[in-house]
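pls read this protein.

:::
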Amino acid sequence: RVKPIPVSELRAFCKDETRLRERGTLDPGTLFMIKKGCPPVRQPKVTLECVALKLTGRYADPRRTPPELKAFAASQVSMAAVAFDLLGRSDSVDRECRAQARAFMSFKPCGRPERRLLKAHLVEEALRQGRTTTLIDLAHAWLYRNHIVPPRDTVFDRLVGSARRRADDAIVEHYGRTLTDEQRRALDGLLAVPPGGRISTLEFLKKPPAKPSPNAMKALCSRLAKLEEVGAHEIDVGKIGPSRLRHIARDAHGKSAYEMGAQTQPSLRYAQLASFLAHTFVETRDRTVDMFLRLVQKYVNRARDLAEEDVRILALSRTESFQR
């Protein structure tokens, strides 16, 4: 799939004439409609908007449009870049030129129906993605794929934020439906200090693994056994993706057992603890397997080195005895 070029990368992209010509050249039918339906003085402006829509899925920003892009757009209608200065700047002219460019490029504005569809798409992606920047990139890609011009930045930011909040509510509702009473009691037990211990179970599970060694392997196995004891492997994460799960687990990792227990909403606490356990179980299991393979390879290499050393010493002793 062809992805839109981010506005932050447009200037560097336009400096590559080959890539600009491959991606930005308009088809003959579009150029014919521009020359037939626009006055000559507006043709460079409409062409620039068409090229901007084709490359980025957005309108051309007068303050951030690279001069190379202006010159390339003007050249497609056989005009020089100075033609932009003849038209001047006017809000009404800009609106008319952008409306013509949308019609020529088969784009449509982001109205209420398009916003509802975009928000529904973002809610699904927010269940899988943890970073807001990734969510924004996916939103721009969806708009570009469906030939929809993005709304204003303020409206766009509100859409992304609303979709993220809706996804957070969906995650809390999911755990509220799927967690059993026994699992909730196990999650509450993470915040308590076990008999004879010095730290809570939650803090014990937060400890990072040490460098590969037999003792570190033993600690990982103990950690994995504790996770299975509290039922981490039985937690149903539903449609929550690994990236989103890791993001929630990171938030829970930054809170102490006291801060987690002081939350006024038990449903939110259960959602964070359940996500933390599910992510920590998968991470610990993978790290255990990885450390086991590293240790096996380490001892295999050591045994091979010792065997080669013994062979070398034996060969040297035989050579010395032969020389005698």
